[in-house]
Amino acid sequence: MAMTVRPVSRPRRGLLEQSYLWEVARGLGVTFRHFFINLARHCLRLAGLRAEPGAVTIQYPDEPAVLGRRARTRHRLLRRPDGSPRCTACLLCETICPARCIRITAEESPDPAVEKRAKTFDIDLGMCVFCGHCVEACPVDAIHMDADQVELAAYSRGDMIWDMPALMRDTK
Amino acid sequence: MDKTLRFTLDGRPIEARLGETVLEAATRAGVMIPHYCWHQALGNPGNCRMCIVEVEGAAKPQVSCRLPAREGLVVRSISPAARRAQCSALEFHLVDHPLDCPVCDQSGECGLQDYYMDIGRYKSAMREDKAHAGKRLALGPHIMLDQERCIMCTRCTRFVGQVSKSHELGIFGRGHRQAVDLVPGRALDNPYSGNLADICPVGALTDRDFRFQVRVWYLDSTESICPGCSRGCNIFVHTSTRRPWQNQGRRLARLKPRFSPEVNGHWICDEGRYGFLDFDSKRLGRVMRLKPVSEELSWDRAAQEVAAALRRKPVEGLAVAASGALSNEDWLAFKELFVDTLQARRFLFAPEPDQAGTEDQLLRRREKTPNLEGGKALGFGTKIESLGWDSLAGDIEAGKVWGLYVIDRDPAQAWGGRSRELLERLDLLIYQGPRQCLAGELAHYRLPATAWLEEEGHFTNFQGNVQGYQRALQPLGAAKPDWAIFADLERRLKP
After folding, report:
1. ipTM score of the complex?
2. Do A119 and A107 contact (CB within 8 A), yes or no?
3. Domain extent listing, chain B
């Protein structure tokens, strides 16, 4: 797309704006409106009346975050009843992944009924966009995004890549 | 014989030759009627029933692979009735099919998948358990059999009966227990066995060396010519470069035959098919002077030094070892450099013993290079002396040859244990080629050339057919095509 220049005119500020007093009062008005609405809602519910719930501040780093039941969080590779990974290395998740963050290599499985299994299964969580397409694509229900882990920061890009043992750590 | 008949297929006029079936005529006209068992080179047993079509005036649907084309026939292959018949045939094929597409290597190029998405899309009425049969049966060095996936089209048994004539496979059992298997005491080790993986329309016969390496939808396909022998079979080169962690990091995934009626038909031999999978091993990518002082050079500097070295002593003592691995373009630049400009006399082109092998009546030829014919067609005049490896060794020992320019050949394969001693006697050894070998280790100058997949050019096969091949991969490092190296040297040597 060709670049264009669009002139933007700055708004003129009068004495009222430049003194800031009126704007500060307007802002505080919003704060106090919410304060009193929430106070009223909490009081009404405390009194046992049916009212909308009041807003509650979550003390996030000190208290764990509350995730929705269908939240897409860190991936988990599931196991068969005998403990081996369910993944058959069909590469459908790798194929559909829009961020290209999944890397799988396949190998022969010792079990002829399984035939093919993943030799390596790496997910680069630094590249993952958490779209959940891999879960949708999986024909053997081997990958879920329900580890309920959203704090995935690491000190290097390499540490953002999770391999198969790490992705299976918390699956029974 | 060449009488033409006209009939109508799905409202489209189709021309057929006398004796052709409806399916053959439709395929030639570019209309694809679903089919498994019919193969242009293997006949039409009519057992898969997929090519069933509606024929006006006939009470029942007909299989188009056994329906001779007649003047004025009105055939419908996509009408609701024809589609329903084809859909039922497909449903029967899938009764015992394990539907293990996630594991199957054929997935992505499978006849069952293609037709299911095209005309199937039904809910299976099958309520019984699937019958189980042999899985993961290695039939021979190259082919893996999965009996559960087989749909009994018998293309494979017809191939070993009619084409390779080696008769290793048969159909055993009846009805539900019918299965393709090896004839007792045999192994599928004929020199054309790889073709079975191509003609199998489902995932029952797959390549062992391609097994689980890379999914077919990640492959890029390029039209090329097999450089394995002077037949020059037409092939597709399948390369895997988009996901380098797959296919064990190798760029070349597999070779597949490309139909050519006058050269190779539908087939290629195993020697060619599996002979190039180490394409990326021992590759050269740096321009080197190794003696007297080892140093990496720029192309400009190397050409300057090599040109000077070639002129250092009388040209009578310079020998050139080349091979039919050169393309026609390379041969022309070769002739202009060595014959016209340098006027060298001693040349070694003979394929024996390092580039000769087994031959047979079907495809394989004795000389294992693709383009000796191209050099011959160009002609090098009457002044040159054609050497063999033995006479060259004699000349080196007698001190008649001081310099040797080796182009993509390995003297160690001809001279064996004494090659090191012979090569070290030379005042000048130049090695030009894509791969490392003993001559490359002992050379004074080592010039990296592109391999066949990294350049485009033409080969002339033993019949005189000039066939072009396309570039499938990027050159490695500083490698240049042979003709470019020759042309550069020639420019500097011209008076």
Report:
1. 0.85
2. yes
3. 4-93, 133-274, 288-493
